[in-house]
Amino acid sequence: MAYHSAYGGYGGPGAGGFGAPSRGMAPGGPPPGADSQLWSWFAAVDTNRSGMISATELERALINGDWSPFDLDTVKLLMSMFDVDRSGTIGFNEFCGLWKYIKDWQNVFRHFDRDRSGTIDRNELREALRQFGFNLSPPLIELVQTKYDMKASNVSSAYGPTPGITFDRFVRACVVIKQLTGAFQGLDTDNDGWVQINYDQFMQTVLMLP
To answer: Is 56 helix (H, G, I), strand (E, B) or coil?
Structure first.
């Protein structure tokens, strides 16, 4: 499902993404055929000019629509998804995939943030998950809301707790639910909605998830 937004750019109201790029370029210049705008973003995030982006650099670069920094667990999740060579850093090609992924999620977030509050409330979350094909029960919706809503979970930042689920936590919540559902479906071989697993299988399933 694709969503189109009237908004453009990163760090705009209501969503999140990369902060404004600073001056300076990564050493060596862009690869042949590289998108100049993407290379500018990559160079801005690569603050130590190593030619690679670490989790720390990525965390400093990503912001929510209210200018609060991205949740560190979300940053680690994104790193694990796009660090395809498992080097602990991401290069330019991996960064291009990450940039598009965040851009797509911006459009999704803005589509479901119906009241343009800059966060996702319980009703918006339920509708988003329903359209993604995840029909969670009301108690599970409540649990997800409590876990990822900074105010409900008593998690605060320098900007204070924000009611509702911010962009970064919305992305993480949706990815985690998708991966949990996929893990369950892999165990539910007869597709009846029930599984019987032993302790080792349970621990392997949980520990492989973000």
So the answer is: helix
Rg over alpha carbons for the chain, rounded to the nearest Å, is: 18
Residues 6+ apart with CB under 8 A from 3: 107, 108, 110, 111
Measured CA to CA, the distance from residue 172 to residue 183 in angstroms comes to 16
Cα–Cα dist 208/210, whole Å = 7
Q: pLDDT tens digits, residue range 48-106?
A: 999 999 999 998 888 887 778 888 889 999 999 999 888 999 999 999 999 999 999 99
Q: Sorting pLDDT into bands at 50, 70 and 90, what band is 25? A: very low
Q: Are 195 and 184 in contact (CB under 8 A)?
A: yes
Q: Compute φ and ψ for 120, nearest 5 degrees.
A: -105, 120
pLDDT tens-digit profile of 110-138?
A: 999 999 999 999 999 999 999 999 999 99
CA neighbours closer than 13 Å in the CB half-sphere of residue 20: 4
Amino acid at 180: L
User: Taking the mean position of all CA atoms in its chain, how far away is CA 41?
Assistant: 18
What's the CA gap between 31 and 105, in Å, rounded?
26
Question: Which among 66, 139, 45 has a CA at the least distance from the CA of 109?
Answer: 66
CA–CA dist 181, 58 (Å, integer): 28
Instruction: Provide the 3-class DSSP secondary structure of residue 16.
Output: strand
Q: Which residue has the tokens 């290379």?
A: 39
